[in-house]
Specification:
332 residues, alpha/beta, Rossmann fold
């Protein structure tokens, strides 16, 4: 793997800070809307893990693909998704990514290379593997970034997928967001190895550990893995050591972990760290950072206004996008 640091200048730093802030502001606004009852159901906040999505997607081309998880808002926004359509979907509106019928865990945007979120733990891993096989067979030069959590790394889909991907040298990058807890189960109680990247050696592929709270470190590791995949040398497993600042979902009171642990991880906030780095390297001034943050927050508020004024799906939407047909005798 390359030891070079992912190249950034002022324009790239502005883009990175905008995405980090956009994802954070979006998730904070969604939580407020859920608590107010404006958005129904649950949500799985990505707050704290923003550097993983942004850093990984920095290394991907516009025509590359990603496969997401139940905690997927950040992946979609980092890959170039529209916050208006994302927010509208959460509101259950017809202008949303799933026409208001998919909700927080079931949305995709093929136009930006986002192949879909997935409510099943580990369910996206074989989908991403299949997409990588498609890219290889079509010789498209595309690479697939496959996001999943530490809870998914013990699923059979993980092992089956990595075995095939390694065997066939598929252009995939497997990105494990190790936030230390699968719902309330500590990774120490669920995995036989301390570092999940060690699982890669069983398949003869590189396993890389990276600070998932550092967007530049994540982008650097992702770029090396993407370059390897695109050149035909097969997949890489990247373990991003990260932390979700809040609970698994909105109702999680986090009784299984200590507040001292949470405070220690908050000191490594990826937004704060990157903003300090941008100022230190001379990429952005304090005023420029503030302007970028305001732009991101304004985009989130605009998405709320868009969702609020959008219509709900009509009755005709009930039979759209389904596989059963009224003329099909098997449907009755």
């Amino acid at each position: 793997m390359s030891t070079a640091t992912f190249p950034l200048g002022s324009a790239e730093a502005r883009h990175v800070l905008y995405l980090l802030t956009l994802i954070r502001a979006f998730e904070e606004r969604v939580l407020k809307l859920v608590n107010e009852g404006a958005i129904r159901g649950t949500t799985h906040p990505y707050i704290g893990q923003e550097a993983v999505a942004v850093g990984s997607c920095l290394a991907l081309r516009a025509d590359d693909w990603v496969v997401s998880t139940h905690r997927g808002h950040g992946h979609l926004l980092a890959k170039g998704g529209d916050p208006n359509r994302l927010m509208a979907e959460l509101f259950g509106k017809a202008t949303g990514y799933g026409g208001g019928k998919g909700g927080t865990q079931h949305m995709a945007d093929f136009a930006v290379g986002h192949l879909g979120s997935n409510g099943i733990t580990g369910g996206g891993i074989p989908i991403g593997t299949g997409a990588a096989l498609s890219a290889q067979m079509r010789r498209s030069g595309q690479v697939v970034g496959v996001f999943f959590g530490d809870g998914a790394i013990n699923q059979g889909t993980f092992h089956e997928s990595l075995n095939l991907a390694a065997l066939w040298r598929l252009p995939a990058v497997y990105i494990c967001e190790n936030n230390l807890y699968a719902m309330s189960t500590s990774v120490r109680e669920a995995c036989s190895v301390e570092h999940l990247a060690e699982r890669a050696c069983a398949y003869g592929i590189p396993g890389v550990q990276v600070d998932g709270m550092d967007v530049v470190a994540t982008a650097t590791a992702a770029q090396a893995a993407v370059d390897r995949a695109r050149s035909g040398h097969g997949p890489t497993l990247i373990e991003c050591k990260t932390y979700r600042f809040l609970g698994h979902s909105k109702s999680d009171q986090r009784v299984y972990r200590g507040r001292e642990e949470e405070a220690a991880w908050r000191e490594r906030d990826p937004l704060v760290r990157f903003r300090a780095l941008a100022h230190e390297r001379g990429w952005l001034s304090t005023a420029e950072c503030d302007a970028v943050a305001r732009e991101a927050v304004d985009a989130v508020e605009a998405s709320v206004a868009f969702a609020q004024r959008s219509p709900f799906p009509g009755p005709e939407a009930l039979t759209q996008g389904v596989f059963a047909d009224s003329d099909d005798p098997c449907a009755s």
